[in-house]
Write a structure and sequence with these properties.
CATH architecture of the largest domain: Orthogonal Bundle
Number of strands: 0
Strand content: under 5%
Main location: nucleus
Number of helices: 19
Domain Homeobox: 260-323
InterPro entries: HD, Homeobox_CS, Homeodomain-like_sf, KN_HD, PBX_PBC_dom, TALE_homeobox
Biased composition (Polar residues): 399-418
Radius of gyration: 45 Å
GO molecular function, one term: DNA binding
Length: 463
DNA sequence: AATGATGATTAGCG
DNA sequence: CGCTAATCATCATT
């Protein structure tokens, strides 16, 4: 079997040499035309076997040399060049000057906008413009296969994904600096790869150009054809460039969306955390500015970050203050209602407890709207025993807090009283609060001396 | 879905 | 840098 195959193979090769015979062309005859045919047949045989011949370097050089020295060579060469020129030109005309790829342009724009490509503060410029510069001093023999580049791109993707995974591991806390670092990393990778890409492209081009120039001595290759070849190579490489840019864009987009997601997603703190924070806030109401250590402590207790604690206190302070006006309004409304109810149903006004509580707080604590707001707004806060205790600390004078008899009688006037009363009785004494001396700081804006204070009041025309 | 509560972000101040 | 005030985006409740 094996032998037979080989035989047949050999036969096939033989067939090449006898191809004419197979087509019934007589190999020999008296006819002069037969002789010509014989000659042609020989030539054809030579041509057909030429592909089977392997040339070693020396041989090739030798043949090239003899060819170059052939007397007919220049004439033949010019004719061939002419013919080729024509065909090349016709090809060229058909695919003239295509516009730059819009997709590539978009990618470029995005990369520049994201600061990945283009002029950059940190240097490492992406010598992109050099792409058009024809030959560089690269070594011609370091041709790089496209497949190599495919593999490299896969590698790049891998890197991105690893980075992004790492990024994701960071989980809840993603900082601006992280984002910038990652972006810088992407930029770095991109620019390195782009540099490599460019180098490879140039090297490959140079290699091909040199090869063609070399061959143009033995083969009819016009400069224009070389040019065209370069164009083709560029086009092929552009596909790779596109992939690189696309991957980079993708990576940036993912990074971006992750970052924004993390930034925007809001998670409520646990009830317990809110509890702890409120406790601290209300027990330091006179100076609700935790020190760095206190913040750390709170952060630990609440399982949140220090910056979250800071955010929380910032929000709390501002909202606490802000709500005083509203709280008053609401409390007054409520008070009015309660008063009406009380008037209608003397002695049975237990429903009005809430409102009564606010008013008591505001009028008796000497904290103006502050105390009032606390009761009104400290919803979750009120639910805890600790909080109530704290509250008492804040408003020690609300001994009447649970005194129903008082608010019924004071409901109406208390609103105005509240304003007056605290002017006379400078804010509470907190028995266990060492920070009372710092009173002014936070609550100052509630002081009648503060214009802001009156602003708040004025927002409440119903009194 | 409309609304309020709430954590995060931002500009601007000292 | 830490703070306030305004604002955004989402959660939670109705």
């Amino acid at each position: 079997m094996d032998d037979q195959q080989r035989m047949m193979h050999n036969q096939g090769q033989m067939a090449n040499t006898n191809v004419l015979n197979q087509y019934g062309i007589p190999q020999q005859g008296d006819d002069p035309s037969d002789q010509r045919k014989q000659e042609i047949g020989d030539i054809l045989q030579q041509i057909m076997t030429i592909t089977d011949q392997s040339l070693d370097e020396a041989q090739a050089r030798c043949r090239k040399h003899t060819l170059n020295c052939h007397r007919m060579k220049p004439a033949l060469f010019s004719v061939l060049c002419e013919i080729k020129e024509k065909t090349v030109l016709s090809i060229r005309n058909s695919q003239e000057e295509e516009p730059p790829d819009p997709q590539l342009m978009r990618l470029d724009n995005m990369l520049i906008a994201e600061g990945v490509a283009g002029p950059e503060k940190g240097g490492g410029s992406s010598a992109a413009a050099n792409a058009t510069a024809a030959a560089s001093g690269g070594q011609p023999d370091s041709a790089i296969e496209h497949s190599d580049y495919r593999a490299k791109l896969a590698q790049i993707r891998q890197i991105y994904h690893t980075e992004l995974d790492k990024y994701e591991q960071d989980g809840s806390e993603i900082k601006n600096s992280d984002y910038e670092a990652k972006l810088a990393q992407i930029r770095q990778v991109y620019q390195t790869e782009y540099g490599k890409y460019e180098q490879a492209c140039n090297e490959f081009t140079t290699h091909v150009v040199n090869l063609l120039r070399e061959q143009s001595r033995t083969r009819p290759i016009a400069p224009k054809e070389i040019e065209r070849m370069v164009g083709i190579i560029r086009k092929k490489f552009a596909a790779i460039e596109m992939q690189l840019k696309q991957s980079t864009c993708e990576a940036v987009m993912i990074l971006r969306s992750r970052f924004l997601d993390a930034r925007r997603k809001r998670r409520n703190f646990s009830k317990q955390a809110t509890e702890v924070l409120n406790e601290y806030f209300y027990s330091h109401l006179s100076n609700p500015y935790p020190s760095e250590e206190a913040k750390e402590e709170l952060a630990r207790k609440c399982q949140i970050t220090v910056s979250q604690v800071s955010n929380w206190f910032g929000n709390k302070r501002i909202r606490y203050k802000k709500n005083i006006g509203k709280a008053q309004e609401e409390a007054n409304m409520y008070a009015a209602k309660t008063a009406a109810a009380a008037a209608a149903n003397v002695g049975g006004g237990h429903d009005g407890q809430g409102a009564a509580g606010y008013n008591l707080g505001s009028s008796q604590s000497g904290m103006g709207g502050g105390g009032m707001y606390m009761n009104l707004n400290g919803d979750n806060y009120q639910s805890s025993d600790n909080s109530v205790n704290t509250l008492r600390h804040v408003m020690p004078q609300s001994a009447g807090y649970s005194n129903d008899s008082m608010h019924n009688s004071y409901d109406q006037p208390q609103v105005s009283q509240a304003h007056r009363s605290h002017a006379g009785s400078p804010i509470d004494r907190k028995p266990d609060d060492s920070s009372d001396s710092l009173q002014g700081t936070f609550m100052q804006s509630l002081d009648p001396a503060d214009p802001g204070y009156y602003d708040q009041i004025e927002k409440n025309p119903k009194v």
